[in-house]
Design goal:
Structural class: mainly alpha
Number of helices: 11
Strand content: under 5%
Order of helices and strands: HHHHHHHHHHH
InterPro entries: ABC2_TM (IPR013525), ABC2_TM_bact-type (IPR047817), ABC_2_transport (IPR000412), Nod_factor_ABC_transporter (IPR051784)
Subcellular location: Cell membrane; Membrane
Largest sheet: none
Keywords: Antibiotic resistance, Cell membrane, Membrane, Transmembrane, Transmembrane helix, Transport
Radius of gyration: 21 Å
Protein name: Transport permease protein
Membrane topology: Multi-pass membrane protein
Helix content: over 70%
Number of strands: 0
Low-confidence stretches: 1-21
């Protein structure tokens, strides 16, 4: 790149940042739409990137139903476990799909794609929101496959369809909030491998130290205390109550509070980090 070209690019970048506050809502939505389309075309060119969303629900459902089902519900009674674990897996799907956002955005920086976006007169947040929009779509696909597997293994809806849709919506909202954490992680770590490694250190305790797979009352006291404050437990309990019936208000409101709190804290940090990342 020549010195003149570099100067022009830097000037354009500074102008874009300076003018970001003047970009209207309609323009922002148009930018998000265009960037989301770019991300979807990227998936079309690399269909292997959908393997996690397509295969993970199948593998997890079969694995946990037939591995943990016998231990929790008794050998030969795995079908009774389906109504317990599938709503919990809805929470797990959101977190695992969210992890891919961090590695993806880190890889885009490595390729120089994000540097190009930062020279354009668009809101910095639109680049990140477009990522989340596409990943939410992938999450919906994974959840649909998960429920399909659940129905094939004997899942029954003991409430009604609106309650099932509410469980899906709640899982999606919470999963979208988690994406901001992993975007911030992807913008902070140096390599996609580092992002994935740190993400696993966060994912494993939260997933297995929750009510997703087993009732907290069967756990040691110290672990039971952790599961009660684990946001994934609240989401799993809320989805379970919406599908199977039972008290739901407390778990739903706590989950929404977590989602709002995570977004309010991490979204501005992620956008600020996106502006400054070199």
């Amino acid at each position: 790149m020549s010195a003149a070209t570099a100067t022009v690019s830097a000037s354009a970048g500074r102008a874009a940042v300076a003018g970001e506050g003047r970009i209207g809502l309609r323009a922002n939505l148009r930018h998000i739409g265009a960037l989301a389309r770019r991300n979807m075309l990227q998936i079309k060119q690399d269909p292997e990137s959908m393997f996690d969303a397509l295969l993970m629900p199948v593998i997890f459902t079969l694995l946990f139903v037939y591995v943990f089902g016998g231990a929790v519900s008794g050998k030969g009674n795995q079908h009774a476990y389906v109504n317990y674990v599938v709503p919990g897996l809805m929470a797990m799907m959101g977190m695992n799909i969210a992890q891919a956002v961090g590695t993806g955005i880190n890889d885009d920086f490595k390729k120089g794609v994000m540097d190009r976006f930062r020279t354009m007169p668009i809101a910095r947040s639109s680049v990140l929101i477009a990522k989340i929009v596409v990943e939410v779509g992938r999450m919906m696909i994974a959840t649909t496959i998960l429920l399909g597997m659940g129905f094939a293994l004997g899942l029954s809806i003991k409430t009604d369809v609106p309650h099932l849709l509410a469980a899906i919506a709640l899982s999606t909202v919470f999963g979208a909030s988690l994406m901001w954490i992993f975007i911030l992680l992807g913008l902070t770590m140096k390599t996609p491998q580092a992002v994935q490694g740190v993400a696993l250190l966060v994912l494993m305790p939260l997933q297995f130290g929750s009510s997703i797979f087993a009732k907290p009352t069967t756990m040691p006291g110290w672990l039971e205390g952790f599961t009660k404050v684990n946001p994934l437990s609240n989401l799993a309990d809320a989805a379970r109550a919406l599908i199977n019936g039972g008290p739901v208000a407390h778990s739903v409101w706590v989950t929404l509070a977590w989602a709002v709190g995570i977004t309010v804290v991490t979204a501005p940090l992620a956008v600020a980090r996106f502006r400054k990342k070199t």
